[in-house]
Automatic annotation (TrEMBL):
Native species: Halogranum amylolyticum
InterPro entries the UniProt entry points to: DDH_dom (IPR001667), DHH_sf (IPR038763), DHHA1_dom (IPR003156), Oligoribo/pAp-PDE_c-di-AMP_PDE (IPR051319)
Domain DDH: 19-162
Domain (DHHA1) ranges: 221-309
Designated name of the protein: DHH family protein
GO MF, any single term: nucleic acid binding
Length: 339
């Protein structure tokens, strides 16, 4: 029996499907959730919900949700413990309760579909393929094999997600991504794709990127910078992507204070560095971090800096000093700054 058929058969056992996105979901997660909902509908499940925690703050992600009219609900961790009989719980683009999601650790999960590195995955149905560039590729394969109705909304969502997750097929793309994109292309709405791809940018995002440019410090081919305090979480990966184009830079790590946590975003095409492992090893004692060899992120609660939270200037100075020192040590860099 094929993997797609196994998924379909499990869905036919349920009367309700609850799809939980990871924190601050991106297009790959959202499109995958939308596709899984369509597959569940074809399997006879009428009650379907997509939940998320955190924020949808990146202007492209907001455009994605609004233009595709994706119905999202805020996730309540308490409610997940009280699901009615026949309810199925699914994760897409993440895989372990409590890791980049607010699902209580130890919660029983029915379906996991993910391409990120992870250990300890436990579910009734697991499709975990780290070699692929996007979860949306996996969902496209299911839609295709199960002959699920593919309208222009779903095709556009999946095609944009694959393109976004692979940075226009330049990061982690495999033959499977190209094959999926070729299948989706004929069904996608080109005008909608252009609209999602070119949303307006907020002034605060520009300010955050500007701050990262001003604060940059390079050591060899590694650039470390911060955006200070911002409410625009997705300004960090945007700053990381932009500064990664700086001549001579192979690894970029950007951090900043957002609400009550320090967030990190990193990029590194350097084959000598697995940036996901670096962030995990550097910050696993104070927060959660990790990712792929070339793209990664993390979050550290501000609780470890509790003594400084009454003075924002002092807090930012201490955060910059501590985070930078940990990264320099973790990457085994010289203590001499070149900027």
């Amino acid at each position: 029996m094929s993997t797609a058929q196994q998924l379909h058969d499990l869905l036919t056992e349920g009367s309700e499907l609850n799809i939980v996105c990871h924190n601050n979901p991106d297009p790959d997660c959202l499109a995958s959730a939308l596709a899984l909902g369509r597959i569940a509908s074809a399997a006879g499940i009428d009650e379907r919900h997509i939940f998320y925690s955190g924020d949808i703050s990146h202007q492209q992600n907001r455009a994605f949700v609004n233009l595709l009219e994706i119905d999202l609900k805020q996730f309540d961790p308490a409610a997940i413990q009280d699901l009615p009989p026949g309810s199925l719980l699914a994760f897409v683009d993440h895989s372990v309760p409590g890791a980049n999601n607010r699902v209580p650790p130890g919660t029983a999960v029915d379906i996991v579909i993910d391409h990120h590195p992870a250990e300890g995955i436990d579910a009734r149905f697991v499709d975990h393929r780290e070699e692929l560039g996007a979860a949306a590729t996996m969902l496209t394969q299911y839609v295709r094999e199960l002959d699920v109705d593919l309208d222009d909304t779903l095709a556009t969502a999946l095609l944009f997600a694959i393109r976004s997750e692979t940075l226009g097929f330049l990061r982690g793309a495999t033959c499977a991504e190209y094959d999926a994109a070729g299948f989706l292309h004929a069904h996608a709405d080109r005008k909608l794709l252009r609209q999602i791809s070119s949303p307006s940018v907020t002034g605060e995002t520009i300010d955050a990127i500007s701050t990262a440019i001003d604060n940059r410090m390079t050591k060899g081919a590694v650039l470390i910078s911060h955006v200070g305090r911002t409410t625009e979480r997705d300004a960090l990966p945007q700053a990381a992507d932009y500064l990664a184009t700086l001549e001579g830079v192979d690894t970029t790590i950007i951090f900043g204070v957002i609400h009550d946590a320090i967030h990190l975003s990193a990029r590194s095409p350097d084959p000598r560095i697995h940036i996901g492992d670096v962030l995990r090893e550097v910050f696993e004692d104070v927060g959660s971090a990790g990712g792929h060899h070339d793209v990664a992120g993390g979050e550290i609660p501000l609780g470890i800096f509790a003594d400084y939270t009454t003075d924002d200037a002092q807090l930012l100075a201490i955060v910059e000093q501590v985070i930078t020192a940990r990264l320099v040590a973790g990457l085994k860099l010289s203590n001499k700054s070149e900027d």
